[in-house]
Design goal:
Blueprint: H1 8-14, H2 16-24, H3 43-48, E1 51-56, H4 58-75, E2 79-83, H5 84-87, E3 98-104, H6 110-121, E4 125-130, H7 136-139, E5 143-146, H8 159-178, H9 183-205, H10 209-217, E6 223-228, H11 232-247, E7 250-255, E8 272-276, H12 286-299, E9 303-309, E10 321-325, H13 334-351
Parallel strand pairs: 1-2, 1-3, 3-4, 4-5, 6-7, 6-8, 8-9, 9-10
This protein binds fructose -6-phosphate (F6R).
Fructose -6-phosphate (F6R) binds next to α4 and α11.
Length: about 375
């Protein structure tokens, strides 16, 4: 049942190419237009949408943060990401033209379910992105877009996460297409790139030796920091969450631009810091900005573990380790950059002799508020 792997988590990490592939399957017609027949909300209603809330918890909320960047870019609809358990208390501005997108692997997370209920009470349209057929959240939503990651057994979410991000891209492109955005032209190109992701993930998974070694060397770390920007920011948060859950190490992810507003005070000699570097073509000179962040923390003694695209040589002078990911367009990079962080947390947990699949104090689905 573990497909020859030692743990479910390791198997599920290796299921990721298929999780992305299957989540893309059957969602375009011969002309490359997106078809989401399964959405039981009329096209008119979707065209009317003028605000989107994403509600989710934990890893699923980080998928939602990635979705915000993509959906806003492609559709120009404002997107707010709300932790499901905070949604109700922020007195959300919701009406019939609001689309509330919930993201949940299990479809049973009580906090997320309650947020969806609240949204419905306020008159919103609700779509559930979910990995579990017939579970409670999709049943309580107007529409569902299933992720096809297959059952996820390990408590820490991996393949569901990449499937959630994939489904969010598909939803964003579909909404753009419906609204006749110029970006709809791009949609074909983005879809073509998405179809290449499974192969890229396979390439990454075939070359994890160095990440495993780094994890073993770091087994007695007391704290690890993660920096990212743009879509790399939620990936930094996800990298930190995986490490907390699996290795019980204090970890914090933050937006690289925040460094000088406080966190840089944490940097002392030997402090390990993972940095997710945007591709060199990312707009607004972000790549250069992150490279100078690496330089700043290195100058203060940080041990820099840099995740950068193939061919990005600018990071080399300031990196103690460079972990390479294949080149892709900026918005899609999270599907690749998260992989080494998952592998790192898995192997650090293993090196500490911990229970990878069942970390202490956690349950796979949280069915109480
Ligand atoms: C992290 C993790 C949790 C879940 C969260 C939401 O590895 O597994 O943070 O992502 O509890 O669960 P679902 O997606 O089932 O609603």
């Amino acid at each position: 049942e573990k497909g020859g792997y030692e743990t479910f988590m390791e198997k599920e990490i290796h299921d990721q190419p298929a999780a992305v592939r299957d989540t893309l399957l059957g969602r375009t017609d011969e002309d490359g237009r997106l078809v989401l027949d399964e959405l039981r909300i009329s096209e008119e209603e979707l065209r009317e949408v003028n605000r989107i809330y994403v509600v989710a918890c934990g890893t699923a909320a980080y998928a939602g943060m990635v979705a915000k960047y993509a959906i806003e870019h492609w559709t120009r609809i404002p997107v707010e990401v709300s932790l499901a358990h905070e949604f109700r208390y922020c007195d959300p501005i919701v009406d019939a033209r609001t689309l509330v997108v919930s993201i949940s692997q299990s479809g049973e997370t009580m906090d997320t379910l309650m947020a969806v209920k609240h949204a419905k009470d306020l008159g919103a349209r609700t779509i559930s992105i979910c990995n579990t057929h017939g579970s409670t959240i999709p049943r309580g939503s107007d529409a569902v877009l299933y992720t096809h990651a297959g059952p996820e057994i390990a408590v820490a979410s991996t393949k569901a996460f990449v499937a959630q991000i994939t489904a969010c891209y598909v939803l964003g492109l579909y909404l753009a297409q419906l609204r006749g955005q110029t970006y709809a032209d791009d949609a074909k190109q983005v879809m073509a790139e998405l179809h290449e992701m499974p192969e890229h993930i396979e390439t990454l998974l075939a070359s994890t030796d160095r990440v495993e070694e780094i994890a073993r060397f770091m087994a007695d770390s007391r704290s690890v920091l993660f920096l990212g920007r743009h879509v790399g920011y939620p990936i930094a948060m996800e990298g930190a969450l995986k490490l907390k859950e699996l290795a019980y190490i204090h970890a914090e992810g933050f937006a690289a631009g925040e460094l000088k507003h406080g966190p840089i005070a944490l940097i002392e000699p030997g402090q390990p810091v993972f940095v997710v570097v945007p591709g060199p073509d990312t707009p607004h000179g972000l790549h250069k900005k992150v490279v100078s962040n690496i330089q700043e923390i290195r100058a203060r003694g940080a041990r820099t573990l840099v995740i950068a695209e193939e061919g990005d040589e600018d990071v080399v002078p300031f990196a103690d380790e460079v972990i390479r990911v294949p080149k892709t367009s900026p918005l899609l990079q999270p599907l690749l950059t998260v992989i080494p962080l998952q592998v790192f947390a898995l192997h650090l947990s293993t090196a500490k002799g911990l229970d990878v699949d069942q970390p202490r104090n956690l349950a796979k689905s949280v069915t109480v508020e």
